[in-house]
Design goal:
The protein contains 3 helices and 7 strands. Helix content is 26%, strand content 31%.
Length: 153
């Protein structure tokens, strides 16, 4: 599952769905969707890899209500590729008020959060996930005050 973004994406989606079900987060309102196409009514035409939200159609509310988390995945991202995805996540924060954004760099130890220069540090978590000799290493980074804090596990 670490060979391609698409393979990892599918496996992650299934794992997230199982975990969110287990903890009772998913229900008739809150759902998880892959490659959810945004349109003019969203103020962006982005296609996030995964979103956790209550679709506006279910609660007859504006599209910026009920959004919980947005995920962006890249396979072996370069620094510029990560910055591009960070800007896309910033758009999702600005336009649709997602309180949480997650960037996952697949098959890489680099999280690149140290190059994020946007205004939403408090909403962003970044991961480098890598498989070496059947051993998975996850590097998580988040901003604490003005510093990137990294945890490796």
């Amino acid at each position: 599952f670490f060979q391609t973004e698409r393979g990892y994406h599918g496996r992650l989606y299934c794992g997230l769905q199982n975990a969110l079900d287990k903890f009772g987060i998913l229900n008739d309102q809150v759902i998880i969707e892959m490659k959810y196409q945004k349109s003019d009514r969203h103020g962006t035409h982005q296609r996030p890899d995964i979103v956790l939200h209550t679709p506006a159609e279910l609660h007859d509310s504006p599209v910026d209500v009920g959004n919980l988390a947005v995920f962006a995945l890249k396979h072996q991202a370069t620094q510029s590729g990560a910055q591009t995805d960070f800007r896309k996540l910033d758009t999702m924060f600005e336009q649709l008020h997602y309180p949480l954004g997650i960037f996952i760099n697949v098959n890489s130890s680099s999280h690149y959060l140290n190059v994020y220069d946007g205004p939403y540090r408090d909403r962003l978590h970044s991961f480098g996930v890598q498989l070496d000799d059947c051993e998975v290493t996850v590097t998580h980074a988040s901003w604490v005050n003005d510093n990137v804090v990294e945890n490796i596990g």
